[in-house]
Write a sequence for this structure.
């Protein structure tokens, strides 16, 4: 059921109205964070893995970033097929995040946007992402944050379209990353008052 719902959305995902007020603005923020990171890092070749990449919009928008070797992972074949259409030359992993340890390499940058709330064991997955990240790497997590009652109520409606989800509050997220990551920056996106708050975390390994 979980995978099927994303296969169902795959064909029309890039046309959904949430692209305008939620997913698109998140990508803009994440691209900005990545550009800043790349501008201060001295290496000319950087690898990036987008976990839960969906139809690959972020990967597509990052094309042309000099020296950035992009790759994406998602468990939905439908989503990956759409991503492959627009990101022809990049590596895609059709994998459940629970199997992240099957990837036998590390990355300089790992992004995970609007995907964490759907993972069965968020704590285990964050540990796996931590292991996949290079020592001085950057991890960026963005998700609708169940921080207050308003957000929680709105997110009940979102769940009707996505299936089971658990949206971490700031407090929950801090617990999830405790001992693994330190927060470099926490930013918030709220384009419309009726949209849930989106938290964007830039993290470094402890
Ligand atoms: C709301 S979409 C977000 C897609 C994209 N990151 C974005 O920001 O537009 C959530 C994505 O997470 C993927 N996903 C959910 N649970 C997953 C899991 N256990 N393993 C891998 N991918 C998963 C879904 O297939 C879907 O593509």
């Amino acid at each position: 059921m979980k995978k099927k719902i994303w296969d169902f959305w795959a064909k029309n995902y890039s046309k959904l109205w949430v692209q305008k007020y939620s997913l698109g603005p998140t990508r803009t923020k994440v691209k900005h964070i990545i550009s800043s990171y790349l501008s201060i890092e001295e290496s000319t070749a950087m690898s990036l893995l987008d976990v839960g990449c969906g139809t690959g919009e972020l990967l597509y928008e990052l094309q042309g970033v000099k020296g950035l070797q992009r790759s994406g992972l998602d468990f939905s074949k439908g989503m990956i097929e759409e991503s492959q259409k627009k990101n022809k030359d990049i590596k895609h992993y059709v994998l459940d995040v629970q199997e992240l340890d099957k990837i036998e390499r590390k990355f300089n940058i790992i992004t995970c946007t609007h995907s964490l709330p759907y993972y069965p064991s968020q704590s285990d997955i964050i540990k796996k992402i931590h292991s996949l990240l290079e020592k001085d790497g950057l991890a960026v997590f963005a998700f609708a944050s169940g921080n207050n009652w308003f957000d929680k109520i709105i997110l009940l409606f979102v769940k009707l379209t996505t299936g089971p989800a658990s949206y971490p509050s700031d407090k929950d997220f801090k617990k999830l990353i405790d001992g693994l990551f330190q927060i470099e920056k926490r930013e918030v996106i709220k384009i419309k008052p009726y949209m849930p708050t989106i938290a964007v975390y830039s993290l470094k390994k402890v």
About this structure: Residues 6, 23, 52-54, 57, 74-76, 79, 96-97, 113-115, 118-119 surround S-adenosylmethionine (CB under 6 Å). The mean pLDDT is 93.
